[in-house]
Design brief:
The chain has ten helices and no strands. It folds into two domains: 44 residues, Homeodomain-like (Arc Repressor Mutant, subunit A); 115 residues. It is mainly alpha-helical and 173 residues long.
Length: 173
């Protein structure tokens, strides 16, 4: 018999795959249970709701983003952007889920957290009192990097990383 943690991991993996293919809103707990050949009550043993399941998948990404901004000091923009790119590349599936289901962010109370780490990242890049124009440039830089991770997820990491970081640096100037 599978350990509960093994089953929980299997549920998360199946859910992630279905969420990416069908979208979060179009994937029910029944779809996930059927995919795994388990009953819905078995799934409910591990997750109280679809939102709980989505949160369990997205939460590590959010936690890592917050830790990333909390641990960094202002400094070399290139190094910061390279490290940020590496982080979002590692979590590109979660990023795709979030971007494809923005209403889910509100349901999971993650919108404020996302704005907070984005503002912290901008402050690390630009300092505490950037001009409006500089803030817009940072929005383009960071948003563009996220878009590159999603749009070019099937290309080699180094190819996408190099071009995305260069474009982000150019946007900041």
């Amino acid at each position: 018999m599978a350990r509960p943690s093994d089953t929980k991991t299997r549920i998360q993996e199946a859910a992630r795959e279905l969420f990416l293919r069908q979208g979060v809103q179009n994937t029910s707990l029944k779809h996930i249970a059927d995919r795994l050949g388990i009953t819905k009550p078995a799934l409910y043993y591990h997750f109280d709701s679809r939102e709980d399941l989505v949160r369990s998948i997205v939460q590590p990404f959010m936690d890592e983003l917050e830790a990333f901004t909390a641990e960094r000091e202002p400094g070399d923009a290139r190094a910061l952007l390279e490290d940020y790119f590496d982080l979002i590349w590692r979590h590109r599936e979660e990023l795709m889920m979030v971007l494809r289901a923005p209403a889910m962010l509100a349901e999971l109370d993650l919108v404020e957290r996302m704005w907070r780490w984005r503002k912290q990242l901008t402050t690390l890049l630009l300092g505490p009192a950037p001009s409006t124009a500089a803030q817009i440039h940072a929005t383009v830089a960071l948003g563009g990097m996220s878009d590159c991770v999603v749009e070019h997820a099937t290309l080699p990491l180094q190819e996408v990383r190099a071009a995305a970081v260069e474009a982000a640096l150019a946007a900041l100037t």
